Amino acid sequence: MNERISGRQFALMAAYVAIGDSMLVLPSIPINDAQQNAWISALVGLAAGMMVVWLLSAAGRLYPHLTLVQAAEQLLGKWIGKAVSALFVAYLFLSIGAHTREIGDFLTTQMMPETPIQAIHIMYAGILAMAARLGLETIARTGEFFFSFFIVFLAAFILFLIPDIKLNNLLPVLDGGIKPILRGSITMTAYPFMELAVLLMAIPAVRKPQAIHANFMRGAFMGGAVVLLIILLSILVLGPDYATRSIYPSYALAKKINVGRFFQRLEVILAFMWLLTSFIKSAIFFKVLQTAIAQTAGLRTEKRLELPLGMLVVCFSLIISSNIIDFHEADHYWPYMDMTFSVILSLVLLAAYAIRRAARRKGTTGSGNKGKD
Amino acid sequence: MARKAAWLFIFLLMLSPILSGCWNRRELNDLAIVAAVGIDKAKDKYLVTVQVVDPGEVASRRGSAGQSPVSTYHAVGGTVFEAIRKMTTSTPRKLYFSHLRIFVIGEELARQGMGEVLDLLSRDQEGRTDFYITVAKDTTAQAVLNVLTPLEKIPASKLYASLEVSAKSWAPTVAVQLDELITNIVDPGIQATLTGVTIRGDLEAGNKKKNLESPDVPTRIQYKGIAIFRGDKLVGWMNEEESKGYSNITDQLHSTVVETACPNGGKMAVEVIRSKTSIKAKIRDGKPEAEVIMHTEANVADVECKIKLTKSSTLYELENAAGAAMQKHAEHAIVKAQRLKCDVFGFGDAIHRAAPGYWKHNKDNWDEQFAKMPIRFKVNVKIRRIGTIGESIMNDLKE
């Protein structure tokens, strides 16, 4: 990758990945578990998530000039490294398929019920492929450019909802005990934060390696805070019951906006925000998938992978589940898959690094035997 | 060269499906905009009535052709959705529900349980939650939707507006939207309520355009009373006084009129301009109890008796009298609700907030607990102003 992104762009990419599809599909999951206490789940998730990001960042900075795939090969040896990379590629591919399906399901449920989902998937995969061809730098700049719009829309969204807030919806605090809250926080940690593992593939592109850690943390926190706000608003405005019942609570939120009978029917604002964050997120995933495949398979160039990948994504997103309920059942195990490729993978890399370093030190301070590395 | 041309051809061919435009577009003149929906029970099926706006008749510029500004269609079906789709056999266009203003449930259906009909409204993607829901009192939803109204050409808009206005400035009506209704139906700590709508006057005359030809129209639709539900079943009605008390206790009262007796006989009216009510619930000796605290600001609006208004002690007396009147309304509402064992005020939710542990064990028989729960009042009325004149002319009337 000869592309260069700034620390700020890296931070915004982290924010986009954290907000991403979580904005629309996440809120009902913790609310379902913890009811009116879901905002505490979100807080717990935010705290746990920041630890995950810290871990990811630590793993990423082991070799700031290498991508995750290259670092895995370096640390775990060629064959184990390649096996891990192949699994990572499969994970990326699954994620992109799921994102595409989320877009398709949302648009066909809420906005265009009579449009075949294939048409939406083909177009979405088409622009993903186009974004990937233009490169990570372009995606990062697009994200940077649109972020101010996103913030303005989000501020308007929150402002317009303030009249509908019912503080009583938050009470009683902690009536179900701590367990449901923790259960709710699993998804809240996984979807926004653990999926940030993809950015470990983008680390070599960051201009100043010393700026990675702070920007990674800052971006992830920003994204997590947005998700927390959306969850809080869903409870405050819709109440836990209606928020759980809705498949897309934040869209139901947007439907509630009615300021002076004049500012109403602003669902499109929400749809815009979600399509934007979700698109940047899946574009980053797509580009990273392309790089990961090229580096794992040892291809000389990663160009020309976009089109076949795009076609695969279209097909895969259609067969990934037979109906929407089937699709949402993935929420039971998807967080653990996210965990495998973020927490566990980072820990493995850090452990491998530590063992190698210890072995090397032992080799040099010991009887003079050369270490194997 | 030929190769290039072939590619160009393929490229253009690929563009063509995109260029055809919005394949699934629906123009305004392909839609029948539904302003109101009414659902009644027809034996074991549903009778669905829709009120569709005729845009040409509503637009004021062009002189109307003397047709009715709205048309109603009805159909019977085993499910609501089936009935609505069946209506396409009689409607010229496809019904479009996004601009729904008012949803009327027939009393008979409400008594048997209306849960089934609410699902479609929240599930369908055309449905929104910003319309009001009412119950047709002593009549059918179909009859209500067939009445033409003066001033507002679309009866559904009249129903919508007058519910909103009366809830704001008269109080014995509640403007309930779908999400609130659904939450109240499923929440064990509160029961749902809906405002009743009824027809006053001659039923037959109401659905002719003739109904609009005299200034005092022979048939009107009017809000009356608040329906009390247990779960999704209607179990009783509150009268006007009880309804006022109800909206006061549930903090939905913005402005209303309180009629008070004068110290020396006669009557006067006080206008409430703002009111804030909070419910404090607690458990004492293992029994739930609650206190309703009302803070009300009011002005003297209408004096129809002899009274020395320009003395501050008179105003304090009036404050007490108005407070007593408001408390009486509220007590009536509570008596009615406790007799029906329906906690429409959300005391259960207040207990849930105050004592989650108690609530966990008692929520299943909350109705019984509510029925014998002591409720105290603390009413605090402040009369600030007396309008633009001082002493009433009543004091100086010639004998």
What would you say this structure looks like, in words?
The complex is a heterodimer of chains A (373) and B (399). By secondary structure, chain A is an all-alpha fold. Chain A has one domain (7-365): Amino acid/polyamine transporter I (Up-down Bundle), CATH 1.20.1740. Chain A has helices at 7-19, 22-25, 28-34, 38-60, 68-76, 78-111, 117-134, 136-161, 179-193, 212-245, 249-256, 267-297, 306-319, 324-328, 334-365, and strands at residues 258-259, 263-264. The model of chain A is unreliable at 366-373 (pLDDT under 50). By secondary structure, chain B is an alpha/beta fold. Chain B is built from 14 helices and 13 strands. In chain B, the strands form two sheets. In chain B, strands 1, 2, 3, 4, 5, 6, 7, 8 and 9 form a nine-stranded mixed beta sheet that branches. In chain B, β8 and β9 form a beta hairpin. The longest helix of chain B is centred in the last third of the chain and has 29 residues, at 312-340. Chain B is globular and about 105 Å long. The chains are: A mainly alpha (373), B alpha/beta (399). Chain B: InterPro entries: GerAC_N, Spore_GerAC-like, Spore_GerAC-like_C, Spore_GerAC_C_sf. Chain B: One of its GO terms (biological process) is spore germination.
Q: What's the helix and strand layout?
A:
The complex is a heterodimer of chains A (373) and B (399).
Chain A: H1 7-19, H2 22-25, H3 28-34, H4 38-60, H5 68-76, H6 78-111, H7 117-134, H8 136-161, H9 179-193, H10 212-245, H11 249-256, E1 258-259, E2 263-264, H12 267-297, H13 306-319, H14 324-328, H15 334-365
Antiparallel strand pairs in A: 1-2
Chain B: H1 2-19, E1 31-42, E2 45-53, H2 55-58, E3 70-77, H3 80-86, E4 94-96, E5 102-106, H4 107-112, H5 115-123, E6 132-136, H6 141-145, H7 155-169, H8 178-186, E7 193-201, H9 203-206, E8 219-230, E9 233-238, H10 240-249, E10 256-261, E11 267-284, E12 287-304, H11 312-340, H12 347-354, H13 356-362, H14 366-371, E13 375-385
Parallel strand pairs in B: 1-4, 1-5, 5-6, 6-7, 12-13
Antiparallel strand pairs in B: 1-2, 2-3, 7-8, 8-9, 10-11, 11-12
